[in-house]
Design a protein that fits this description.
The complex is a heterodimer of chains A (about 230) and B (about 350). Chain A is α/β, with parallel strands linked by helices and about 230 residues long. Chain A contains 10 helices and 10 strands. Chain A has a 6-stranded mixed beta sheet, with helices on both faces. Chain B is built from 12 helices and 2 strands, in the order αααααββααααααα. In chain B, α2 crosses α11, α3 packs across α9 and α6 packs across α7. The longest helix of chain B is centred in the N-terminal third of the chain and has 50 residues. The chains are: A alpha/beta (about 230), B mainly alpha (about 350). At the A-B interface, α2, α3 and α6 of A face α7 and α8 of B.
C-alpha cells in the first residue's frame, strides 16, 4: 500500500533522512520507533507532502506521490495526525470534524461518518459545540484523530499521540487506535512509549539517525536485545 | 501542550470575572453606547444614518483587510486602490448607462442603473483581485515564505503606487463624479430628510456584510477560508487547496473594496488617490479591533464611524482625523493586539 524507496529528506540544508526504505501493507498496524531527532516526524511529514523529499520515492497505491501537494495526498486517502495537532482552535468540535471531511463530496457520507465518530468518541459528541482551543489536551488528541478519520482514509499517519498526556489518557488514545485498527484502517504510528506501542502493533521499524536499522514483528522486537537496552530500559 | 481545561462560565460570578478579563471590550462598548446616545440627541436621524453609511463602508473595507491578513498574512496597503477602481468602474458604467436608460424613460431601468454599476464594480474588483494574486503574491509565496510579511507589505505598497500612477497616466488627475445615483426626493425618516443614495449605500453595506458572514460561517468554502486563517498546515492536511482559498480570499476582499468605492461614488468622486482616506480609516479599524479579526472588523467599522461623527458634532470638523489617530495611539499603547485581541496563525509560524 505504502512504499518508501531510499527516501532522503530534510529541511533546507539539513538532511535528516538518509535512504529510508520501508513498506506498509493494507490493514497493517505499523510502529515507527526511534530516539529523539531520529527523523520519525520528518518521515511522516514527508509522506504527508508537507516536506518535499530530496531523493528517493514514495509510492502509495502504486502511484508516486513524491511531488504531490499535501491537499491532494490527503484526498488520495492518507490522513496525517500531526504532533502539533493543527486543530482549528477558534472553531467548534463539530466544525473541526466537518472540515475533516472537506474532500468528501456527499453530505450523506459526511454525516454518517460523523455519527460513527460520535459513537466511537462519545466525549466529542458531548462537547460538539465547544471551541476546539478550549478543550483539554487529551480531548484535543481525540479530536485530531477523529478529524483525521472523517475523510475515511485508507492510511493514517499518527504522530506521538501520547505526547504530554497523563498515563490514563494515553491509554484512551491507544484504545481509540485499536478500535480504528479493528475497522480495517491501516495505521503507521510514531510513538515514544515503546513498550505499549510494541504491544499493540503488528510490526515495527526502528529508525536511528535517519536510517532504518532494524525491523520485524513487534513481539520479536520486544525481545530483541538492542531494543530492550535502548528503548525499554530493561 | 497545555492540558488545562477552561469551561464556559455558567454562573454570574464567572460572568463578572469574564467581564474583568475583557475590560477593553467592556469599556469600548459602554463608551460607544454613550457616544451613540449623545450623537442621537444632538444630531438626530441624519447623523445616525451617517454613522450607518460610513460605518458600514469602513466595516466592508476593514473585513477585506482582516480577511487578507488573517488568511494570507498580507498587510494590505493597496486596499484603497481597490476602492478607487470600484469608483471608476461605477462612474464609467453608470454615466452612459443612465443616459441611455433616461432616454428610454422606463422607471425600472433608471432605478436599476446604480445597482448594475455597483455589481459591475464588484465583478471587476473580483477579477482584479484574482489577477493581482496570481501575478504578484502567488509567485512570491511559491518561491519563499521567508520574511513573508515584510515582503508582502512592500509588494502592496508598490502595487498601490503602480495602480495610482497608472490611473493618473491613463485617465488623468481629473475628478469624475456624479451628483447622485437616484434622482428622487429624499425620504423622511424620523423627521429628517435622508437622501436615497445614503439609504441604498447603507443597505448595500449591511447586505454585503451579512452575505459574507453567512458565507464564512455556513458554507463549506467559507469554513475552509476560516480554517486556513486558523491553521494553514491543518487546512492542507484535511485536503483544502491553499492556492485556491488564497486567491478566492484576495478576490473577495478586492471585490468588497470595489463595491464600497462604487456605492459611495456620490460622496467620494473618482480620482487616482481617492483610496487614501478609505485605506487609512480601514486600517484604523483593523488596528483598533485586532488584525485578522473578521467579526471585530465589522463592529470596529461602526465604532470608528461613531468616533468620526462624534468628533464632528462635539469638537469640530477639522479634528475628524486627529481624534481617531489619538485613539489609535492609545490602543497601540494600552492594548497592542487590539481591543478584541486576535491570534493569527499561519505563514509566519512556519
Amino acid at each position: 500500500m505504502l512504499q518508501l524507496k531510499n527516501l532522503d529528506s530534510g529541511y533546507d540544508f539539513l538532511q535528516v533522512l538518509w535512504g529510508v526504505s520501508f513498506e506498509v501493507e493494507s490493514g497493517e498496524f505499523i510502529a515507527l520507533i526511534g530516539p529523539n531527532g531520529a527523523g520519525k516526524s520528518t518521515t511522516l511529514r514527508t509522506i504527508a507532502g508537507l516536506i518535499k523529499p530530496m531523493g528517493g520515492d514514495i509510492i502509495f497505491d502504486g502511484k508516486s506521490i513524491k511531488n504531490t501537494p499535501p491537499h491532494l495526498i490527503s484526498r488520495m486517502g492518507i490522513s496525517y495526525v500531526s504532533e502539533a495537532l493543527n486543530l482549528f482552535t477558534d472553531m467548534s468540535v463539530e466544525e473541526n470534524l466537518m472540515l475533516g471531511a472537506y474532500a468528501v463530496k456527499e453530505r450523506e457520507t459526511q454525516l454518517q461518518t460523523l455519527d460513527y465518530i460520535f459513537q466511537l468518541f462519545p466525549r466529542l459528541e458531548e462537547r460538539k459545540d465547544q471551541l476546539a482551543g478550549t478543550m483539554s489536551g487529551g480531548e484535543r488528541k481525540m479530536l485530531a484523530i477523529a478529524r483525521g478519520m472523517m475523510s475515511n482514509p485508507k492510511l493514517m499517519l499518527v504522530d506521538e499521540p501520547s505526547l504530554g498526556l497523563q498515563p490514563n489518557l494515553t491509554y484512551d488514545v491507544f484504545e481509540a487506535l485499536l478500535k480504528l485498527r479493528k475497522q480495517g484502517v491501516t495505521i503507521l504510528l510514531v510513538e515514544q512509549n515503546v513498550n505499549a506501542t510494541l504491544d499493540i502493533t503488528d510490526r515495527a521499524y526502528i529508525l536511528e539517525q535517519g536510517k532504518i536499522v532494524m525491523n520485524g514483528p513487534s513481539q520479536e522486537m520486544k525481545a530483541n536485545e538492542h531494543v530492550r537496552n535502548a528503548y525499554l530500559g530493561i | 501542550m497545555a492540558t488545562k481545561t477552561s469551561e464556559r462560565p455558567k454562573t454570574s460570578v464567572d460572568l463578572i470575572t469574564r467581564l474583568k478579563d475583557n475590560l477593553p471590550v467592556v469599556l469600548v462598548s459602554i463608551f460607544s453606547v454613550i457616544l451613540f446616545i449623545l450623537i442621537g440627541i444632538k444630531g438626530g436621524a441624519p447623523q445616525i444614518f451617517n454613522i450607518i453609511v460610513t460605518g458600514g463602508m469602513w466595516a466592508l473595507l476593514a473585513t477585506g483587510l482582516a480577511l487578507v491578513f488573517g488568511v494570507m498574512n498580507i498587510p494590505h496597503f493597496a486596499h484603497g486602490e481597490s476602492f478607487m477602481v470600484g469608483a471608476y468602474v461605477a462612474y464609467f458604467v453608470f454615466t452612459p448607462l443612465n443616459q441611455f436608460f433616461l432616454s428610454t424613460g422606463s422607471k425600472l431601468l433608471i432605478y436599476s442603473g446604480p445597482f448594475i454599476a455597483i455589481i459591475a464594480a464588484g465583478l471587476v474588483g473580483s477579477v482584479l483581485g484574482i489577477i493581482i494574486e496570481k501575478l504578484v503574491f502567488a509567485p512570491l509565496r511559491h518561491r519563499t515564505k521567508e520574511g513573508w510579511i515584510m515582503n508582502a507589505f512592500l509588494l502592496t505598497v508598490g502595487l498601490s503606487f503602480i495602480l495610482t500612477n497608472g490611473t493618473n497616466l491613463i485617465l488623468g488627475p481629473n475628478f469624475r463624479g456624479i451628483p447622485r445615483y437616484f434622482d428622487v426626493k429624499p425620504v423622511e425618516i424620523m423627521g429628517a430628510f435622508i437622501a436615497v443614495d445614503r439609504i441604498v449605500a447603507a443597505g448595500i453595506a449591511i447586505v454585503t456584510i451579512a452575505i459574507l458572514w453567512f458565507f464564512l460561517r455556513r458554507t463549506k468554502t467559507g469554513r475552509a477560508i476560516r480554517a486556513v486563517s486558523q491553521d494553514e498546515t491543518g487546512a492542507q492536511l484535511v485536503g483544502i487547496d491553499l492556492d485556491f482559498i488564497q486567491t478566492l480570499t484576495f478576490s473577495l476582499a478586492t471585490a468588497m473594496a470595489a463595491i464600497s468605492g462604487a456605492s459611495l461614488l456620490f460622496m467620494f468622486q473618482a480620482y487616482p488617490t481617492v483610496g487614501v482616506t478609505p485605506l487609512y480609516f480601514s486600517w484604523y479599524v483593523v488596528m483598533l479591533v485586532g488584525l485578522g479579526n473578521i467579526a471585530g472588523a465589522i463592529v470596529g467599522g461602526f465604532i470608528v464611524a461613531l468616533l468620526q461623527s462624534g468628533t464632528q458634532l462635539f469638537i469640530g470638523l477639522s479634528w475628524q482625523s486627529v481624534v481617531p489617530t489619538v485613539v489609535m495611539i492609545l490602543v497601540l499603547i494600552l492594548a497592542p493586539s487590539g481591543i478584541f485581541g486576535s491570534e493569527v496563525k499561519g505563514i509566519q509560524e512556519q
